[in-house]
Structure prediction request, 209 residues.
Amino acid sequence: MDPIRQLGWRYAVKKFDPDRKLTAEQLETILESVRLSASAFGLQPYRLVVVDEVQVRESLVEHSMNQDKVLHSSHLLVFAIRLFVDDTDIENHLRLISETRNTPRGNLAGLEQILHQFIGAMSQESYRNWAARQAYLALGNLLTVCALLQVDACPMEGFVPAAYDRILQLDQLGLTATVIATLGFRAQDDPYARQQKVRMPLTEFIIRV
Ligand SMILES: Cc1cc2nc3c(=O)[nH]c(=O)nc-3n(C[C@H](O)[C@H](O)[C@H](O)COP(=O)(O)O)c2cc1C
Prediction:
């Protein structure tokens, strides 16, 4: 498989074929690619919400700049960052490292101190920006893996996070919607499928020092 060819094949789909759905295996691979994404300290300060309910998806269209791919795509995924990371989250993370790697919890005291300092030094705004960056990195992974699987996708910021939080009750889970992705298969008549990719030339884009 040629990754550059696949990345050239992908584009931000404007119109999905409402009748074509991902297989369970394709979906699992894509979800797993998000879970395996790198994050600072491995803290994964976000969750991936899979929105299945058709009625819920219908109600989200008006809060998505009327982009009806939120409804007509095969799957709607919401990257939702944790509202904050607290001492319990840090402890849970350290315990997970300890259990997964069979390392005594006491050996992680140095990391524990670094994590408390790192998280504690951030304002609420800095924390949200930092957490969103982790989520966007995972979104990039998702887009690449979709392209490799020849599954179509559209990353989307054109939605109202507060409305998504309310409708999906994300605030009750200590989460807030950050960016979304719709997955599926391009409609035959999506005009964007035939448009040239617009990217600056490599000579302008790459700076060699
Ligand atoms: C963070 C982000 C948000 C985006 N939001 C939307 C969106 O709400 N609706 C949409 O149709 N496309 C959206 N796009 C798609 C971009 O317009 C598209 O990726 C860009 O024009 C490059 O084209 P290509 O991805 O088709 O190569 C978004 C892309 C990114 C990365």
